[in-house]
Amino acid sequence: MTAPALDGSRPDRKSGGAPSSAPLPRSLPRRMIPLAFRAAGLGLVALAIGLAVAVRGSDASDPLLTYAVVMTAACAAAVWGLWLAVDRYLLRAAETLSREAGLIAHGNAEGAVGGRVPLARYGDLLPIARAVNELSDKLAQVRRDIARTVAESTAKAEEQKTRLAAVLRDLHEGVLVCNTRHQILLYNQTALDILHLTGELGLGRSLLHFVVAEPVTHTLERLTLRVREGRHLTHEHGTTAQFVGATTDGRILLEGRMSAILQDPDPASDEPPTITGYVLTLSDATSELAALGQRDALLREATEGFRAPIANLRAAVETLYDAPDLGPGDRAAFESAMLDSCSSLSQRLEQVTTAYRNVVTGSWPMSDIHSNNLITLVAHRVGAESAATVTLTGLPQWVHGDSHSLVLLFAYLIGRVQALTGATAFDLEAAGPQDGDRWVYLDLVWQGPAVPSATVDSWLDRTLPDGLGGLSASDVLQHHRSTAWSEPLPTDDGAGRARLRVPLPPAQSSRTAQPRPKAGARPEFFDFGLLHQPLATSELGRTPLDRLHYVVFDTETTGLSPSTGDEIIQIAAVRVVGGRILTGETFNTLVDPRRPIPAESVPFHGITDGMVTGKPTIDAVLPQFRSFVSGAVLVAHNAAFDLKFLKMKERTAGVAFDCPVLDTMLLSRMLLGNDGDHTLDGIAERLGIEVVDRHTALGDSLVTAAVFLRMIEMLRERDVRTLDDAIRGANILVELAARERAF
């Protein structure tokens, strides 16, 4: 017979009653106790038998030996009896108790107390049985607490689910929640109705099976770029963007809004938030846009239909005017009536045309767009589709339009120009209002001849690739009240350059920088040791100014005195090559000054302690900045101020800023004399330069770059043509300023 284990376990069950994947080995006490009793009993029996044999074979009667035999046999009987008692009243009872404990462990928690072990049954094991009952009660209480908590959480989740379902059900827009792989995680019934789907949409399925991919992926790309650059914190629409899409079968046009779902980064990381998904709200715009298309066709027919009658009427007037057979009175009355009719008809035509454009523009979903973001998306699309390259140049502007259709338009126009002229390198820049008008111009520039007007018109009549509902280039321009034309550009080297110009409406809301104190609050800074430079040697000094490679930079600082502990908190720069501001090639970083930013300086630059906390220090930033400016001529406004901060950190950063430097403030004095306003704002205002994002390090760098390019043209008229000429003139001004201060 196999004896039960003292710890109450069974070969096929773990302690606590949990099922075991493999039988557990029998515990050491369960094997050793019966073995010890059997060994002792068998030993005593063997000893008694041996003694009995010895007594029988002995000739002499030995009472001690007989007594030993009897006692040994008695001990063997006692050990065997003791074993029976231990096995029955301890080991078997312990095994039974372990089985009942296992049943209790698998019991339920419906009663007020847990399962019970009958105490009277276990005699000497009563303390263990009582402890099992206490553990059973505690286990039952824990189970009831867990069940209650689960029930409450389930009820709350169901309540929230019911509320969310009610909200989604009552919405007139379709709502879908997707991850970044466009898999559908949640949707409402309205979404099914809008997409004209029956049954279930199917969680986990790709949204792009039902909706045209291009507008959705383009909008997600816009939001990703916005979040990556941190612009979602100040952008008017935050992490949302509008778009116009369609179902994959093309039967339904959709007006949608995408809202990004952000996951905050690790607090110790400098990385921006990550987009983990998006919420899409859709509405059926088929009838609205179809009606709009019908109005477009009707108004187009009406406006174009007016032109022929007007031309005929004017021709009739001219014919009657030349007719010699009418009397003077009749002739005068007839002419007056015809001319009045022509004037009235022409005026009506203009009114209808204006109303038509207003209707078209007001009906198409648009928003304010930063030109840099728009051009970046154009460059990305063109680079993915062809071997052409698009360089972002010029100064940034804000426009009002439909980002997706404009990207399609410019990608299409670049492809047509490339096919016609063979050009593969294009500049795309935004130009602010000119000659008092209100338009912002997007200029596509290339090396080669201009495109004839008839050819441009033929391009505009064609359908755009991936255009929704057969959208043509002309339709996109009509939505923006715009047109397009090509013209040659004058160049000094005789190489033919041309551009395709598209005017766009300016932003509807004010996009200028937040009001801050005038930049002129920074005083003119003269450090004569820094400003007085040796002439550039070799070929560099003899190079014309318009052929040099420049880096225009600016810094923001905690204060105006680097010698008393003020530090750099931001450095920004932009490249200028071949007379072009390469807006896409910039350096812009915040710097941790390792000291508090004075509250009185924050209004000037808008940078707070929280914005620079955790950013790289100047020792880490300056080597990167020096690499960015390598081989270029540095340009800054009031350059000595910025150079002083850089020079004081050269040793600790292990760099040297030994490249030539031009100061637009000194150049302004060279051109205009010492009198007058030589602040950056004053010069820009006189030159008619208006830039967004003013009074930031990068915004000031862009303004300075635009001012400097205008100055190159003015310096050429003063016979200042090379780098040495400019340095020589600046040195003279520095010497004069030093002598004035000496007196």
User: What is the share of helical residues?
Assistant: 40-55%
Largest sheet: 5 strands, antiparallel
**General form:** elongated
Mean pLDDT across all residues, rounded?
Answer: 79
As a whole number of angstroms, the C-alpha radius of gyration is 45 Å
**Oligomeric state of the chains present here:** single chain
Q: What distance separates the N and C termini?
A: 121 Å
Structural classification: alpha+beta
Strand content: 15-25%
Q: Low-confidence parts lasting 5 or more residues at pLDDT below 50?
A: 1-29, 513-521
Q: How many beta strands in the DSSP annotation?
A: 17
Tally of helical runs: 22
Q: How do the strands of the widest beta sheet line up side by side?
A: 2-1-5-4-3
Characterise the protein shown here.
By secondary structure, the chain is of the alpha+beta class. 49% of the residues lie in helices and 16% in strands. The strands form 4 sheets. A 5-stranded antiparallel beta sheet has the order 2-1-5-4-3, with helices on both faces. Helix 2 (63-105) packs parallel to helix 3 and helix 6 (286-322) runs antiparallel to helix 7. It is elongated, with a radius of gyration of 45 Å. Residues 1-29 and 513-521 have low confidence and may be disordered.
